[in-house]
Fold this sequence. Notes:
Elements lengths: L1 E6 L6 H18 L3 E11 L2 E10 L4 E8 L2 H25 L9 E10 L17 E12 L1 H10 L4 E6 L5 E6 L5 E4 L6
Parallel strand pairs: 1-2, 6-7
Antiparallel strand pairs: 2-3, 3-4, 5-6, 7-8, 8-9
Helix pairs in contact: 1-2
Protein name: Ribosome hibernation promoting factor
InterPro entries: HPF/YfiA_ribosome-assoc, HPF_long/plastid, RHF-like, RHF/RaiA, Ribosom_S30AE_C, Ribosom_S30AE_C_sf
Subcellular location: Cytoplasm
Amino acid sequence: MRYQISGKQLDIGEALQTHVKTELSETVDKYMQRPTDAQITFSKHAHEFICEATVHLSTGLTATAKGHATEIYSAFESCREKMDKQLRRHKRRLKDHHRDRAEPVEFEAAGLYVLAAEQESESDEPASEAPMIVAEMETQVPTLSVGEAVMQMEISDAPLLVFRNEKHGGVNVVHRRDDGNVGWIDPRHSK
């Protein structure tokens, strides 16, 4: 597994890097046999250290965790424990489905646009009918089953996931609802 360990305005020593590699590889190897790479970033906010970890798996899924603590090693341990919990749940779900994906997840490129928030103007005239684009990037849309999409959304701790449904090829969305349940949007069934 390839590691990219960095610090935002922090000097990450060799001892911490070795500790991170050893502990994270032990955690990931316990649940997943083929992780490809991991990015770990340390930063500091006020008196707290923050550790953010992203592990890419060979199946195409991504696990993300974040930990906070007043000491840098404790922040990493908090992050590692969350990653452990996510991977354990993911493996249990895979086992419950009695199905392993034989082929890696397919991704399709898609445009991702960040739109500026509406600002109140002092005049009664609208500034423009079209929203202002702040950023334009490219993102990846995976081809997954609905169950895999829910797992990916939960493992990456995202509020929603856009994916291509592997059964019919249409674009679908799963999202976390305010009541704690997961919503599934399938435009194909809207007619």
